[in-house]
Amino acid sequence: MATVPKVPLKIPQGTTYVHEFNYVDTAGVAIDLTGYSARLQMRDEVDSVTFFYEALSGADLVIDPLLGRITMTISSTDTEAFTILKGVYDLEIIAPSTAVTRIVKGSVTVDPEVTR
User: Fold this and answer.
1) How many Cα atoms occupy the beta-carbon half-sphere of 56 within 13 Å?
2) Whole-number Å distance between alpha carbons of 8 and 89
3) How far is residue 106's CA from residue 42's CA, in Å, rounded to a whole number?
4) CATH code that applies to domain 9-77+90-111
5) CA angle in degrees (0–180, nearest 5) for 81-84-86
6) Do 41 and 89 touch, CB atoms closer than 8 A?
7) pLDDT by 10s per residue, the chain, length 116
8) Second label for 114, Cα 20 to 30 Å away, from 25, 43, 96, 102?
9) How many Cα atoms within 13 Å fall on the side-chain side of residue 79?
10) For residue 91, how many other CB atoms are within 10 A of its CB?
11) What pTM, to 2 d.p., does this model score?
């Protein structure tokens, strides 16, 4: 089983946050994501019942299939509403066959907003 890469996210509260995830093979070549969807959740802890943010493809997650790229955009309204300052996340892709693969995981740190 492949190791899931860990990528920490640092999100400035009250700003529009954009992060690109690139899904590549061991040679660095983009994996074709044609027909895939994606989902991402942020929780204060892995075992938390509820999430404080969720992104889905077609909304906050945009897939560029031939580049193997998933771009997450969180609106300034959403980041301003974050009350949890530290947490965890993972990003999963769903194949047309409905097989689910976790492609990245990591910590989330929200940098509190001063200007409001």
Assistant:
1) 2
2) 9
3) 10
4) 2.60.40.10
5) 135
6) yes
7) 568 999 999 999 999 999 999 999 989 999 999 999 999 999 999 999 999 999 999 999 999 999 999 999 999 999 999 999 999 999 999 999 999 999 999 999 999 999 88
8) 43
9) 23
10) 23
11) 0.93
